[in-house]
Amino acid sequence: MDEELKSLIKVWVSAIISISYCYYLPPIIKSGVPRFLSVSPVLALFLVLPLFFSSVHLSLITAFFLTWLANFKLILFSFDKGPLIPIPSNLPRFFCFACFPIKAQQNPKSQNHLSKLVFAIKVAIFGLLLHLYSYRQHLSPTVLLCFYFVHLYLEIEIILTFVKVLVFISLGCGLEPQSNKPYLATSLQDFWGRRWNLMVPAILRPAVYAPMRRVSERRMSSGWALFPGILAAFIVSGLVHELLFFYLTRETPTGEVTLFFLLHGVCTAAELAVKKKTTVMERWRLSPAVSRLLTVGFVFVTGGWLFTPQLKRSGVMERFTIEAVLIVEFVKEKLFT
Predict the structure, then answer these.
(1) What are the GO MF terms of this UniProt record (predicted)?
(2) Tally of CA atoms within 13 A in the half-sphere of 165 that contains its CB
């Protein structure tokens, strides 16, 4: 644990120095290829930093924050696009908005008691899951897979909520939610575009979808040009997840997770094509409850088929759950003893 904490300090000090360098570039180097070349050493560094950890959690968090989010934001920043434009007013804000999955809220609203209650329930369920892992030898593979999915969702929600609170305290500005009840999604478009991990589609739209759509519009109508953009965004997401899986497993990518996102891209595009046929939609309109069941069920089944197998084979899922228990015990020991 001590070695991991030392690595954590080194990695994030490096990140702070790198982001500070990027913050002071615009007055010196114009946007476009010159600025991109100037930030490219930072992009390369952020590709390496997750390898400094042996902890699954620290590797994943660092890879998501720096390799995934920060790198894409800095690439967009190089061309005066994305969430870092207009440039935040000071370095701390620039660092937070570059590295963390946060977005300033346009119309700040006070947090209601219901959202706090929901968060408390999520924490309680997460604690119950950690306890149930003690009986994993008695659980069927299907039940254990369900637990893994719920665990992954809840832990992401809890970690990102803590990040959001810390950033809010530091910056004093309202922040958009990181997700929007993905378990209530009524379609794949709804799940991936408006509910799950909202910062990722917010980056993929200007970085991948929009450029691909503009290129496609030269060869097809604007109504159909969105489909290559959708597929490109899902493929890029799949490739990035392959990289994230490499950081976790340190094994050669298998392509399964890319296939998962390609499948969802094709299905999302097909879903949109069907929605364009108003007569079909009127005839086959489903109730929200059925739509939610089908959507979440499809994500779960395809996730069990293509998303989790590599993580299970490499033992990452088991390490992930064991680490979570150890981290909770470590925090409890430091806070209550």
Answers:
(1) acyltransferase activity
(2) 9
Q: What are the helix (H) ranges across 137-277? A: 141-171, 188-190, 199-204, 210-216, 222-249, 256-276
- Residue 225 φ/ψ, nearest 5 degrees: -70, -15
Q: Please, are residues 72 and 203 in contact by the beta-carbon 8 Å criterion?
A: yes
Q: Is 29 helix (H, G, I), strand (E, B) or coil?
A: coil
Cα distances from 34 to residues 17, 21, 39, 40, 122, in angstroms, run 20, 15, 9, 10, 46
Furthest-apart CA pair in the chain: how many Å?
67
Cα–Cα distance measured from residue 335 to residue 337, given in angstroms and rounded to the nearest whole number: 6
pTM reported for the whole predicted model: 0.89
Burial 2-32 (b: 16+ CB within 10 A, else e): eeeeebbeebeebbeebbeebbebbeeeeee
In one-letter notation, the amino acid at residue 77 is F
* Predicted confidence band of residue 20 (pLDDT cuts 50, 70, 90): very high
Assess contact for 16 and 49: CB atoms under 8 A: no
* pLDDT tens per residue, range 161-186: 888 888 888 887 667 778 888 999 99
- Integer Cα distance of 78 and 206 in angstroms: 13
Tokens representing 283? 């005839």
Coil vs helix vs strand at 252: coil
Sequence-ordered list of residues with C-beta below 8 angstroms from that of 320, at least 6 positions apart, any chain: 56, 57, 151, 311
User: Do 60 and 241 meet the contact criterion of CB atoms below 8 Å apart?
Assistant: no
Half-sphere exposure of 98 (CA within 13 A, CB side): 34
Amino acid at 63: A
Domain ranges of the chain: 2-103, 111-175, 176-337
**More confidently predicted of 59 and 336:** 59
pLDDT at 207 over 90: yes
